[in-house]
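the six lines:
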Amino acid sequence: MDAALLLFAERGYDGTTVPMIADTAEVGAGTIYRYFESKEVLVNVLFQECVTRFIGSVSRNYPHAANIRAQFTHIFGGMVRFAKDDIHALHFIETHSGARYLDPKSRETFQQLMDFLHAFVHSGKEQGLIRPLPSDALIAIVFGAFTKMFTLIRAGKITETPELLSQIEESCWDAVRVHSD
Amino acid sequence: MDAALLLFAERGYDGTTVPMIADTAEVGAGTIYRYFESKEVLVNVLFQECVTRFIGSVSRNYPHAANIRAQFTHIFGGMVRFAKDDIHALHFIETHSGARYLDPKSRETFQQLMDFLHAFVHSGKEQGLIRPLPSDALIAIVFGAFTKMFTLIRAGKITETPELLSQIEESCWDAVRVHSD
Amino acid sequence: MDAALLLFAERGYDGTTVPMIADTAEVGAGTIYRYFESKEVLVNVLFQECVTRFIGSVSRNYPHAANIRAQFTHIFGGMVRFAKDDIHALHFIETHSGARYLDPKSRETFQQLMDFLHAFVHSGKEQGLIRPLPSDALIAIVFGAFTKMFTLIRAGKITETPELLSQIEESCWDAVRVHSD
Amino acid sequence: MDAALLLFAERGYDGTTVPMIADTAEVGAGTIYRYFESKEVLVNVLFQECVTRFIGSVSRNYPHAANIRAQFTHIFGGMVRFAKDDIHALHFIETHSGARYLDPKSRETFQQLMDFLHAFVHSGKEQGLIRPLPSDALIAIVFGAFTKMFTLIRAGKITETPELLSQIEESCWDAVRVHSD
DNA sequence: CATGAATGAGCGTTCATTCAT
DNA sequence: TATGAATGAACGCTCATTCAT
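prediction for all of em together
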């Protein structure tokens, strides 16, 4: 699964061949089929597993009672932890969500993630602290900014430091929050 | 080329077959090879053409003398115009920049776009109006947010209106600008 | 189709590979797929075509008004003509009728052949000239005897002569007719 | 071996996989290889065993001194007993005799069966009681008729009764005997 | 002794590319 | 110039066989 994740993230589903995965994993091509019915099943299992981990990462110990800003920090921190823990998983999710070969369960799992984020955004909007834009758009802005930025880190173009991450968080928050000035 | 752009954007390079392109374009498969040496050449020509158009869109009539905010509006407006003009081209650029099959010329063309944006960001940072973050990161934030958001529009999940676009612009600007409060 | 017929007859469906068919037919493996969706479609088309030809061979110019013996001669003659015309087709039908990969249309086509033979046997039984055995059994006896015998001819173990064929016909007829002694 | 016989008879050698046999036999796939060097050895051992049993069935207590008709009854009875005893064995022999993967010993074993039948036919022809046709042809007629008929019984299309079997015997005998009328 | 995970050759099939028409 | 039939390398996948447990 590590090999598949790496390759799917780097080359995409169609650009990754089963022999490639087998070679990277240092197993025979047939072995993969003892564990996954097909390449399509593999990508779905992988996707669900990644998204589930991602959900866990952003929702575990979620400070329900805290203020929006602290909740945003929690979510952002979860995203960072997830992205750092497995640098390919985030990109894999990003590039494969919405793909034509995802099965209903994968779509549903992804929807759970979206639902979680929607709930956060909705609550922020209700409190008048997050801009009154469509939730999808707000999520897209933060998620888009964050993933593209981590792609740069993965590619080694910029170096990830606590300061940088904290500033990026500030930047993303400024993108969605209501400004009083 | 329209057919190829559409398919590459929707299914990716590896998920698009030459016969698919030929069918969509309502020409024979062989005809494509009269105009493009190979599928790889086609995707490169297409990429360069799209990126060049994109550069044109954001840089044409660029207000060199205006202030940063106005310049940002110009760039953002160019991006919107480009995305609206050919709804698939932006997504095609987004998903194919950095692909392994891009040739040096494609990479260089894309770099020209990056250079243009870098110059803008650099100037903004020098004036103390844009955050002192790595330029790549700042571009990624705006670009990432913008493209993800337009993906939603393309998918029909949110409806594009002048108000929405203006608010998104504000949001993106707030993500990169220095806040005085 | 000739190559496929030959190989299916000699090695069976599962024992015949598509590359084998392509090599025998002196075409590329991919070419086969321009004409047949799959190996399974190929075997079905082939089966239907053979059975249809077989039906034509035994039913064309059928002497509806003649006596049973003459009708038997006509059918037997049709079988001989068919078997001689394409020595593999009969064996192909014989070994593939009832196979798990035959589609409904193939089964129906084969049933048409059976129906034709049933009608003949039924009429003979009604006239008291053919034994009062299940029609299926009577057909099996003649068909079984005939095909096994032609397998020998195909294998070169016995030589086909008009006299031999006439004697085999007599033998088959004696197997199904009512004997007055 | 029962599992293998069943599957080879129903799906043919090439259509039967070793895991299929293992599953049907409720053993591990590897276990089969403790008893048979290869799938090919298995089919040969099975073939030889079946043919040997068949020979036993038709030749045990053979009435050497009796007349041809009684000998025919004996052989036919042996065939019936064999076919009833193991409903798949006869079909397995029928469909696998002459197969490309049979080894010399299998071919020789089958030849012993043929020799036994040849001897019977030869003796009958010498006595002027069996038609002066090639022995192979005569055997093919009886064997072909018999096996095709038993295939129907196996498939449940006709029901086997002593009367039916006796009539089939008569029919087969009429196919090979010399008729005085 | 029995197992079943692992293997990789070879299956059925696809598709980028060529070329006669 | 435009075509699409033909190609064969390489795909996703299966399965006869091996071998550590």
